[in-house]
Write a structure and sequence with these properties.
This protein is α/β, with parallel strands linked by helices and about 375 residues long. The protein is about 45% helix and about 15% strand. It has helices at about 10-15, 15-25, 55-75, 80-90, 110-120, 135-140, 155-175, 180-195, 195-205, 205-215, 230-245, 280-295, 305-310, 330-345; strands at about 30, 35, 50-55, 75-80, 95-100, 125-130, 140-145, 220-225, 250-255, 270-275, 295-305, 315-320. Helix 12 links the parallel strand 10 (about 270-275) and strand 11 (about 295-305). The two termini are about 30 Å apart. The model has no long low-confidence stretch (mean pLDDT about 95). Bound molecules: fructose -6-phosphate. Fructose -6-phosphate binds near residues 55, 103, 110 and 155. Fructose -6-phosphate binds next to helix 3 and helix 11.
Length: about 375
């Protein structure tokens, strides 16, 4: 049941700390501060390229994985939604491998991509939440997210658990390829193991996000902006808002704004910015400032360090706990999901069963 929660989605949002803890402890050893992955179906040191494919939110988790794997493991990654990948007829490298991501393990397009990849001689690893699913069975190996059953149609805890697994895979693959040292592995592991308690801190700040939701619920259109590994989280924020509140939302790479979407900016369009301090902060902040200069209402998620500079032009600044750049996509996913939830509640929509959507899309 929902316990004392109004919706399954709310209950599942509040399971983030537990689910992240369970998933991370499955693949990280807190004692040795090392990654502890099941045997991969490919040799990470020998594989020439990786294909990542999935649908919807699961694809966005894969997209964050691409940023992490390319960065930490220096392994080229191709990422595409399964419904495009399967018809693109992409050349697949000999000795190549793929990672498919799915909560249900039954999504028809992702299953079709799996079969195509196997026919193309790729070794396939799936990241799934349902151990007895078709995808887990047909892949060469499966890594499980430890999210438990997810009832709300809009993915929440399964998404962040997918991110947690992708993070562990990126460290492990980076280590195997010699681009992550033992010291780096320990540092990254320690940082990830703090994510569950930071997630709890964010959930405790619900009131701030509810106040932001009141503003967002009045809008007809909303933009989400992020750079680097926060770009897929901007896409996730927009997807979740569309799905459950039926408000039109778009996610963009912050640097792409000036190439078109900035034409949409006026005082009626809230701009939700994901802008943690770190190497990409200055560039993102300057994109936001451009939007603010055109009347855009900037609502920024950042951390204590980013809050100062952003509050010079942003209408609202929410300072999340300060974490290393590596963990920021996981932590920023939580408030954007929470925001979508509160906006949907204000709009009075059917949060757990949004119109036209099914939990598992088993038709192509
Ligand atoms: C978004 C959402 C969907 C799913 C997508 C893939 O909130 O839930 O976009 O992520 O349908 O489903 P799975 O992960 O079961 O393959």
């Amino acid at each position: 049941g929902k316990g004392n929660h109004r919706h399954f989605m709310e209950k599942e949002l509040h399971e983030h700390p537990a689910v992240l803890g369970d998933t991370l402890r499955q693949y990280l050893d807190p004692g040795t501060q090392a990654v502890r992955l099941p045997r991969l179906p490919f040799d990470p040191a020998a594989v020439p390229r990786l294909t990542i494919s999935a649908c919807g939110s699961a694809f966005l988790a894969g997209l964050v994985g691409r940023y992490w794997i390319e960065q930490l493991a220096r392994l080229p990654v191709d990422a595409d939604v399964a419904s495009e990948f399967r018809y693109r007829n992409p050349p697949l490298p000999s000795g190549g491998a793929a990672i498919l991501v799915s909560q249900s393990g039954e999504t028809a397009d992702t299953m079709a991509a799996l079969r195509l990849l196997k026919e193309g001689g790729q070794r396939v690893l799936s990241v799934v939440n349902v151990p007895e699913s078709s995808m887990a069975r047909e892949s060469d190996a499966a890594v499980l997210t430890v999210a438990g059953p997810e009832i709300g149609v809009a993915s929440t805890k399964a998404f962040t658990a997918q991110l947690a697994v992708m993070a562990c895979l990126a460290i492990g693959i980076g280590r195997a390829r010699g681009h992550v040292s033992a010291a780096d592995e320990a540092k990254l592991t320690a940082a990830l193991l703090q994510v569950p308690s930071h997630a709890a801190e964010i959930l405790a700040r619900d009131a701030e996000i509810q106040a932001l939701a009141v503003e967002v619920a009045k809008a007809r259109d909303v933009l989400f902006l992020g750079r680097g590994s926060l770009f897929p989280i901007a896409l996730e924020g927009a997807l979740k808002l569309k799905e459950i509140s039926y408000i039109h939302a778009e996610g963009y790479a912050a640097g792409e704004m000036k190439h078109g979407p900035i034409a949409l900016i006026d005082s009626n369009v809230p701009v939700i910015a994901l802008c943690p301090s770190g190497p990409l902060f200055e560039k993102t902040a300057s994109n936001l400032q451009e939007a603010a200069a055109r009347g855009g209402r900037i609502m920024a998620f950042t951390d204590e360090e980013g809050a100062g500079p952003l509050s010079r032009f942003a209408e609202r600044v929410i300072a999340l706990p300060r974490v290393g750049a590596f963990s920021t996509p996981i932590l920023h996913a939580i408030p954007v999901q929470l925001l979508a939830y509160h906006v949907a509640v204000l709009k009075g929509t059917d949060v757990d069963q949004p119109r036209n959507l099914a939990k598992s899309v088993t038709v192509e």
